[in-house]
Amino acid sequence: MIQLKDITRFYKAGSVNTYVLRRINLDIREGEHICIMGPSGAGKSTLLNIIGMLDEASEGEYRFLDYDVHGLKEKQRSQLYKEFIGFVFQSYHLIDELTVYENLETPLLYKKIKSSRRKSMVCDTLDRFQIVGKKDLFPSQLSGGQQQLVGIARAIIAEPKLILADEPTGNLHSEEGKKIMELFTRLNEEGVTIIQATHSEQNAAYSKRIIYLRDGWLVDKL
Predict the structure, then answer these.
(1) At 94, is the secondary structure helix, strand, or coil?
(2) For 45-50, what is the mean pLDDT?
(3) pLDDT score of 94 more than 70
(4) How many helices (H) and strands (E) does the chain have?
């Protein structure tokens, strides 16, 4: 499903390159449940952003499904993202001007799902995450944990092939976090590929393969 070849990401400051990722080579099969672990600054979020087509590698090749992502234009990458990928952001990334209901509906609008079907999918998702009573509230009216639940719900509502999750339970209490990881496990059993970045060994225990990053390099273990 995913092939990364010599993926490198650096930022220029004058004549100096600051490296975040260094020559990452990685193959991920469809249906895998993978955890990326490493200390802060290891490059976990950057790697997720490149896989999710929200950032570009400075060097290297990235192939997703049958597409050479490194050769696509921004509009083409955006379309791939909307069609196949759900992203759970550490900082939520909800749209402040939209209600919870409207935030959940947005990915379905991108996929041009008909109105009646959208309404059914949003209602089912609100019920699944037990946030029906929050549907008319705006993100600023929610707690951090509630915003995270909405962000996770938005990521899965359009039934993506790939879910990318950056510290998905970081703002949830332990029981909520456990339910989210069990949900990811069920989705994975249904064939959804899941890649999560986390510091949590408890979360990592739900995955089938652990990838370790340190200082931008893939390492065997921490």
Answers:
(1) coil
(2) 96
(3) yes
(4) 7, 10
Other CB atoms within 10 Å distance of the CB of residue 39 = 11
- Range 1-30 average pLDDT: 94
C-alpha to C-alpha distance for 25 and 38, rounded to whole angstroms = 17
3-state secondary structure 144-164: HHHHHHHHHHHHHHCCCCEEE
Superfamily of domain 32-54+75-211: P-loop containing nucleotide triphosphate hydrolases (3.40.50.300)
Q: What is the CA radius of gyration of the chain?
A: 17
Rounded Cα gap, residues 137 and 101, in angstroms: 8
Q: Say if CB 150 and CB 134 are below 8 A apart.
A: yes
Break the chain into its structural domains and give their ranges: 32-54+75-211
Q: Is the pLDDT of residue 222 over 70?
A: no
Both tokens of 165, joined, read 């999750």
Identity of the residue numbered 219: V
Report whether pLDDT(162) > 90: yes
* Per-residue tokens: 210: 């652990």
Helix (H, G, I), strand (E, B) or coil at 185: helix
How confident is the prediction for the chain on average, in pLDDT? Answer: 93
Q: Is the dihedral of CA 158, 159, 161, 163 positive or negative?
A: positive
C-beta neighbour count of 30 within 10 angstroms: 12
